[in-house]
Design goal:
The protein is α/β, with parallel strands linked by helices. It folds into 2 domains: about 130 residues, 3-Layer(aba) Sandwich (Rossmann fold), CATH 3.40.50; about 100 residues, no CATH class. Helices cover about 45% and strands about 10% of the residues. It is built from 10 helices and 4 strands. It has a 4-stranded parallel β-sheet, with helices on both faces. Helix 4 runs antiparallel to helix 6 and helix 5 packs across helix 7.
């Protein structure tokens, strides 16, 4: 995004980046780190900056968060540009943490073997959340490494895809893994199917959904279902991308520019 053309508002959500306390800190309390809190933070930030309406942009988890924000504050949203589409449904989390074991059985076995045997048949995201809150630093670190390794396994089926989570510094992995498992282990703090049930609230807000054809982590059906329920939306399928990668960045930037032109023309 060209900063000479756009006013960009980017924030680090609770528990990560420059926000404090970091989710990786042993005594970090995540009780006030929920979807409702994040949506309230976004709206508070908009009001603080004196912005009347804005375009909401998000990727992956940011898609779910952006959709929930738009559904709760539709009068504040000019449009949305969303990439690697998710909607926070239970079946999406189950697909990632359990069902994809059918595609990557060797890697899934290694992912699951760190979970206590009595918890392996249950919610694996919640089980990992408990491991990542363990008082033993060694347990937390190994849980973060295994979580990131598993995520890299299923990010993309695109030829030439290179892992990028499992090669990050451990401090970053600890924050990432704890927040992901905290949200997934609580159903993203949403009623199941909540986003789909509230699509009529944003039906007339223009949107572009950008999704990779090789995204095995988040299959195309979620983007397709949202697109069909959203009369003002456009779906762009990127033929060389998985959950990002390939030409996703270029297509996402093009969608942002097209959205700006569309809004300027109306």
């Amino acid at each position: 995004m060209d900063p000479s053309r756009y006013r960009l508002v980017i924030f680090d959500q609770r528990g990560c980046g420059r926000s404090r306390p970091l989710a990786s800190e042993p005594d970090a309390d995540l009780a006030t780190n929920t979807t409702d809190h994040l949506v309230a933070d976004i709206e508070r930030l908009r009001a603080h900056l004196g912005i009347d309406r804005w375009v909401v942009i998000g990727g992956s988890w940011g898609v779910t968060l952006g959709l929930v924000y738009a559904q709760r504050y539709p009068e504040r949203v000019l449009g949305l540009v969303l990439g690697a589409v998710t909607s926070g449904r239970w079946r999406e989390t189950q697909w990632i943490t359990r069902d994809m074991g059918r595609i990557f059985p060797r890697e899934w076995d290694r992912f699951v073997e760190f979970v206590p045997e009595t918890e392996r048949a249950g919610d694996l995201a919640a089980a990992y959340a408990r491991l990542l809150a363990n008082p033993d630093q060694a347990v937390r670190e190994e849980a973060a490494r295994r979580w990131c390794k598993w995520e890299d396994t299923h990010m993309s089926l695109a030829p030439g895809f290179e892992p990028h989570l499992s090669v990050r510094e451990l401090s970053w992995q600890l924050v990432f893994a704890r927040l992901v498992t905290h949200y997934w282990g609580h159903g993203c703090f949403l009623a199941d199917n909540e986003v789909q049930a509230n699509m009529e609230k944003i039906a007339q807000i223009p949107a572009t959904l950008v999704h990779g054809a090789y995204d095995v982590s988040g299959p195309l059906d979620t983007a397709w279902e949202l697109h069909k329920a959203w009369p003002a939306s456009r779906l762009v399928v990127v033929d060389d991308a998985g959950h990002f990668g390939g030409s996703m960045g270029e297509r996402f930037t093009a969608a942002i520019n097209a959205m700006a032109e569309q809004l300027q023309a109306t």
